[in-house]
Amino acid sequence: MLDIILHPNQILRNKSQKVANVLTDKIQKLIPEMMATMDAKHGVGLAAPQIGQNIRLFVISYKDHNLAIINPEITKKSILKEWDEEGCLSIPNRYGQVKRHKSVTLKYLNQNGQTEILKASGLLARIIQHEIDHLDGILFIDLAKK
Ligand code: ZN
Is residue 33 annotated as part of the catalytic site, yes or no? Predict the structure, then answer.
């Protein structure tokens, strides 16, 4: 299992770099390790900076599926936003209300290096926005109401 970096740590604050479009063996091997770590910690998402790598990659767990998202770009987002509670594996035992777009459309590379488009709403859209923030050095506590 991979070690999870806890706040405060500069790695969590760096802007992460894009992953090369042809996925290396190192990346291919890292993805299942990140998924196993997320599952073991009962998280719904884990971004590469949280395991010490400033690269644009995260894994999410949604309805019993694990998904790897590489070089995500939000191509569309709803004007409508909603508040809900969030937590983070890097900030144990703290929760807060965060306002997020209700739905987003995402373009990304999957773990086979293929481009995919995903339209997400509700919890899935929230997880995606939380994880993309990690790639830009933003934590939910920066946005939370209290
Ligand atoms: Zn987080």
Answer: no
Is the whole model's pTM more than 0.90, yes or no?
Answer: yes
**54 CA to centre of ligand 1 in angstroms:** 14
Domains and CATH numbers, the chain: 10-143 (3.90.45.10)
Q: How confident is the model at residue 2 (pLDDT cuts 50, 70, 90)?
A: very high
113 Cα: distance to centroid of ligand 1 (angstroms): 24
Contact present, 34 and 73 (Cβ < 8 Å): no
How many angstroms separate the alpha carbon of residue 29 from the centre of ligand 1? Answer: 22
Catalytic residue among 82, 85, 86, 131, which?
A: 131
pLDDT band for 125, please (50, 70, 90 cuts): very high
Please state the rounded mean pLDDT for residues 124-137.
98
Cα(119) to ligand 1 centroid in Å equals 21
Q: How far is CA 97 from CA 83, 86, 90, 102, 139, in A?
A: 6, 6, 17, 14, 13
62 vs 126, more confident: 126
